[in-house]
Design a protein that fits this description.
By secondary structure, the chain is mainly β. The longest helix is centred in the first third of the chain and has 13 residues, at about 5-15. About 10% of the residues lie in helices and about 30% in strands. It is globular, with a radius of gyration of 22 Å. The strands form five sheets. Strands 11, 12, 14, 16, 17, 18 and 20 form a seven-stranded mixed β-sheet that branches. It has a five-stranded mixed β-sheet with strand order 13-22-21-15-19, with no helix packed on it. Strands 2-1-4-6 form a four-stranded mixed β-sheet. The chain is built from four helices and 22 strands.
Length: about 425
């Protein structure tokens, strides 16, 4: 066993019983906030749902806020051809107490946990940096950048040039007032190219105030919508956020090997949707933990049953004939544009960049402006772009359809006939 392997195992063994410090004024600790007066956070530092918080900590039945706690660290993921890659990533620790958010956990997820928010609410997002298990030589700060958020104070933007990063062993709570619905995304903006390539990327979307108000459109009544359209034209029955992602396996291997990183030569060779390649994209269950993750953690004294999946989010889309499907598509890739198509299915784009495709009202807002929606057979997204696509299945025969990239070299992993940026849309009777 090498010296660095021995050091890593020692770090894991210590972390199995040690937690981040609690109670210091410098906030070098697990410290979460949820609404005014820390509403929704109990004495153990665990966030309670905003609609059912403990009055003893200043909460009410509905604090009007949404709250979440993420940790940032490292981990491993498994590709569809069996290859394992070292990653950085976020983990949802909202339901864990402060004492359960430990150092050196290899808990990083890819893709990052999906964040679903409601327009009109306040959102408190706590980020705790839990350190790098496999790279004890690194002391990288991390941030959360709410990509596309239009009213962001610099201090909460996650851009290190205008704010700051969260150092290892520390926590910081971001605040957002959710004024605009639409499909967004989030990522770490500290050393952005490196940390995004390593996997610190996730889906994020905001649902409109109009949700819950029945509106008829095209002979159907909807209660869920993409935007506050006023006429039900963005109504849908089922939805799925799908993030287009890819990785350069050499970059990840060199990172784990503590070698210089070839930024100029970065060439992604593993393309995925929601952090998985096909056919793993259509597996509804969390994927099994990678063997490297199991080996490191069990070697440090962690029980096998305590090791969680690194890739819990699938990309399978299911609907019943006659339903309208909403696909929230986004791309946070740092190297490529991607074009995707839905085999034999009618696609209508109703929004781009978290903005409804609609012209201005001509009577001061009483009557909606002209719809600028368009039908298409494919959608192309560059890094940082999002779009909302509707698929109406009323004229679609039941069966299994494929959503896949037309960049055909990304439909497999090298010479292996597996993996790639593809998933299934299953329409049943």
């Amino acid at each position: 066993m090498t010296t660095i392997q021995t050091f890593r195992r020692t770090l894991i063994a210590l972390a199995a019983t040690a937690t981040l410090g609690v109670g210091t004024q410098a906030r070098a600790e697990v410290f979460v906030q949820c609404g005014p007066n820390n509403a929704g956070v109990d004495a153990n530092g665990m966030i309670r749902p905003a609609y059912d918080v403990d009055p003893s900590v200043g909460g009410t039945k509905d604090s009007g806020a949404q709250c979440m706690h993420l940790s940032a660290g490292d981990g491993f993921i498994k590709m569809a051809d069996g290859r394992e890659l070292y990653t950085f990533g976020f983990t949802d620790v909202t339901k864990r107490s402060a004492s359960q958010v430990t150092l050196a956990s290899l808990d990083a997820n890819f893709a990052a946990p999906t964040i679903e928010l409601k327009q009109g609410k306040d959102f408190y997002l706590t980020l705790t940096n839990v350190a790098m298990t496999m790279r004890p030589d690194l002391f990288d700060p991390h941030t959360v950048h709410f990509h596309g958020f239009p009213q962001q104070p610099p201090v909460f933007d996650g851009m290190p040039e205008g704010s700051f990063g969260v150092n290892m062993g520390s926590s910081f709570t971001y605040f957002y007032r959710l004024n605009d619905p639409g499909t967004y995304m989030y990522h770490c903006h500290q050393e952005a190219t490196e940390h995004m390539q390593m996997g610190m990327l996730g889906n994020l979307y905001v649902t409109p105030l109009q949700d819950g108000t029945p509106k008829s459109f095209g002979g159907k009544t909807y209660t869920r919508f993409v935007y506050n359209d006023g006429d039900g034209s963005t109504g849908y029955d089922v939805s799925k956020p799908l993030q287009l992602l890819s990785m350069d396996s050499q970059f990840h291997d060199l990172h784990l090997g503590v070698q210089p990183l070839p930024f100029k030569n970065m060439r992604d060779d593993y393309a995925m949707i929601n952090g998985r390649g096909y056919p793993d994209t259509v597996n509804p269950a969390p994927l099994d933990p990678p063997t490297q993750k199991i080996d490191v953690l069990t070697g440090g004294g962690v029980a096998l049953g305590d090791i969680k999946s690194s890739q819990p989010i699938n990309a399978l889309v299911t609907a019943v004939k006659g339903q309208r499907i909403l696909l929230r598509l986004s791309n946070l890739n740092v190297t490529n544009y991607y074009t995707v198509t839905a085999q034999g299915l009618p696609m209508k784009v109703v929004g781009v960049g978290a903005r409804q495709l609609r012209g201005p009202s001509l009577d001061g807002g009483t009557t909606p402006g002209k719809d600028l929606y368009f039908e298409t057979s494919s959608v192309t997204l560059g890094g940082g772009e999002s779009t909302e696509v509707m698929i109406d299945t009323r004229q679609v025969e039941p069966g299994t359809y494929f959503l896949y990239t037309t960049n055909l070299n990304f439909l497999s992993n090298g010479t292996e006939d597996s993996g790639g940026m593809m998933t299934e849309i299953v329409v049943s009777n």
